[in-house]
Design a protein that fits this description.
226 residues, mainly alpha, 70% helix
């Protein structure tokens, strides 16, 4: 074995999950990981293949892929210099890498395409993240204002990042407060005003049409109960 390519796969995945543990979305964590390994790709054809395949395999677990990222991965994998790759790997490694490459090329075609350039939490992911964090909080406190403060603190970065993340956080928070009969007067009024003033056109391509439709229904239902 000329190089431990399995270790490189493992290191890439580990770095990705490190970024995830910092509270990043799937998309942002992968972008940061790819950028961190950009220099590694230039060391040789094996390194390039492993890094791009690892990135592609992680994308196969995501709900969407940014169109430019998809095109980049597909082009890089199709343009690999197989003669160089053979020289840099054993025959078993070479065949294994080709099988992984083909799996990525086949699977990536079925991932829905995201046309917004912002690396962010996607619609369902953002909703799930808020719900999970909310459930962690209410186990330790019943203070309504404290719960809202912790939610706003945890998702402050996301709410400042994109309009879609902001409104999904606020809508999900409102739903959870209503469901758990938590209605702090001042904070609840602030949420209500923000939801009432929200204009779906502000989202642009950050959400799909079906996601926008679902969000609009959720906002209407929340406002009817506030």
């Amino acid at each position: 074995m000329k190089r431990n390519y399995e270790a490189l796969f493992g290191a890439f995945y580990e770095r990705y999950f490190d970024f995830k543990s910092e509270g990043m979305s799937n998309a942002e964590a992968l972008v940061c990981t790819s950028e961190a390994y950009f220099g590694v790709q230039k060391r040789g054809e094996m390194e390039k293949a492993v890094v791009v395949i690892a990135e592609g395999r992680i994308y196969l677990t995501h709900s969407k892929i940014f169109i430019n990222s998809k095109e980049k991965i597909v082009n890089l994998l199709k343009d690999l210099d197989l003669e160089k790759l053979q020289l840099e790997t054993t025959s078993d490694e070479y065949q294994d890498i080709l099988e992984r490459r083909d799996m990525v090329l086949d699977g990536i075609e079925s991932i829905p395409v995201d046309r917004s350039p912002y690396a962010r939490w996607y619609y369902n992911e953002m909703e799930k993240e808020v719900k999970n964090y909310f459930m962690e909080i209410i186990v330790n406190t019943n203070d309504a204002s404290g719960i809202i403060e912790k939610i706003e603190e945890r998702f402050d970065r996301e709410c400042r990042s994109t309009r879609s993340e902001n409104i999904v956080v606020k809508t999900t928070l409102a739903e959870l407060l209503i469901r758990h009969s938590i209605k702090p007067e001042n904070e609840f009024l602030s949420l209500k005003i923000e939801l009432e003033r929200f204009d779906m056109s502000e989202i642009g391509q950050q959400l799909t049409e079906s996601e926008k439709f679902d969000l609009s229904i959720r906002i209407k239902e929340v406002l009817s109960k506030m």
